[in-house]
Amino acid sequence: MDKRQTFLASFPNGYFMDAADLGAMDAYLHKQSWLSAGEKILSAQKPGEGNMNYVLRITTSTRTFILKQSRPWVEKYPQIAAPVERTLVEAKFFQAVEKSTSASVFTPKLLGYDALNFILALEDLGEGADFTYLYQKGNHLTRAEIHSLVDFVSRLHKEATGAVLEDFPENRQMRLLNHEHIFRFPFSEENGFDLNQVQPGLEAISLPYKQDESLKQKIAGLGDVYLSEGTTLIHGDYYPGSWLKVKNEVKVIDPEFGFAGYPEFDLGVFLAQMKLASQGKEIMQEIFSGYGGTQSLDMELLAGFAGTEILRRLIGLAQLPVSFTLDEKAVILAQAAEAIRTGKIEKLFS
After folding, report:
1. With a threshold of 0.85, does the pTM exceed it?
2. Rounded Cα distance, 312 and 318, in Å
3. Side-chain-side CA neighbours of residue 51 (13 Å)
4. pLDDT digits (tens, 9 = 90+) for 122-166
5. DSSP 117-159
6. Residue range 56-62: average pLDDT?
7. Is the dihedral of CA 113, 158, 229, 131 positive or negative?
8. Closest CA relative to residue 119, chosen from 211, 274, 14
């Protein structure tokens, strides 16, 4: 797949961002007035391995900043089509957070957005790394990191409501993409994804969940809730790949799956990821305590989302770099399914 030709075939007057062509990038950035007079680009480099978008750290004669372009595919998996307008959602998310919530202390500032070319300019938070190292056994979040991660979603869910949501994009196409890979694809026996290529024997232990019609019906119902409208802005992809550790601080990025939804989805994904990262059963109470309790939450819905997130990460396409044995995966899958069936989040950490 020639990405440039594919992009320009759809957007013949567009600008295709390319780190190897600094001349074109310099002209583009000056045209956008994102560079000042006399400011020159010195380098353009990937700040890390992104999944959804093409991302570069731009170093100029005076500063650094981040450029992100969405294309009509998933950057890591070009064979998967994706809504190209997702950078608009990200821009709107950062604008809403900065304007209306105290959660902005955890997010980069939006410097500019070019709707015609689907490009964001963002504050460079600095050299750092995401939290995907947690999937390797023996790595744990510090108490301060847990506090920050909970503090972000708590502030977001409680402050990004009402008028904040009035002009926020529905983000329907991204939600449909996510819905497919969370609530449907992993549970189809005919999805064409050979789990034995991930880990020998994984296909066999996935079959009970693909063949359990009662469980699949519950998951389908959760998918319907996911696609419905909620009352608060949610991040939509709250997992270790969306968290950055920069100068011993926690930052949150990549909200292109954000929408007006249910807080139980963010928290369910969060708790599921803590289970997949082997963070221990104590973390569940730490999260709930930091969030301000569970009184405002639908715990059955939360448990369902959490269990489904675990199932889709272990038997779906969106695999994580976990190091579980097949027997360990079998236990975790069973716990996740039980959480969905019973509506009890405690089943995940039993």
Report:
1. yes
2. 7
3. 18
4. 999 998 899 999 999 899 999 999 999 999 999 999 999 999 999
5. TTEEEEE---S-EESGGGGSTT----HHHHHHHHHHHHHHHHH
6. 96
7. positive
8. 14
